[in-house]
Amino acid sequence: MLKKDLRIKYKEKRSKLSNAEQDYISRLIAGHLCAYFDLTGKNISCFVPIIRFQEINTWLLLDTIKADFYLPVMCENEKLKHVRYEGKDKLKKNSFGVLEPQSGAEINSDQLDIVLVPMLALNKQGYRVGYGKGYYDKFLVNCKPNCLFIGLYQFDDFEEIDDVHSADIPLHYCIMPKGIYTFKQQ
Known about the structure:
alpha/beta; two-stranded antiparallel ribbon; 12 strands
């Protein structure tokens, strides 16, 4: 299936989740992440959930784990920079309605240990379908070789993606409600 069609399918699938289901799934995923990975003291890129898109509730992580979290900020040319998370009161919605830090310490992509990646769908090779702008693929390519790319995914299914491109960056792991799927040995 083409990415554009998968976007439509999975946005619709997400929209059918009740608030209780979404909360349950987010708690499962946060639990799997904390049980499987040592996050303490790590430099972690974490997205802020876009509520209207019913993304995984990453506040469960941002508000409880003792790690150095950095949040993405959308820049020109569809690039991301990362700024240290210093609390919800330091965030402001950008033109897309996404909460971003307005100031704070920036981190270079090659200093991150873990990147938590949003997604709509994925295939068994670890390639994901995002929202279509390529922000994450352009960012991930500049991370250090041992940085872990971990997708957070509401569902337990895989799709065939017919239009994977050479610029697409695969995940190393994906956390799903039923557990963790590994794509590449580290």
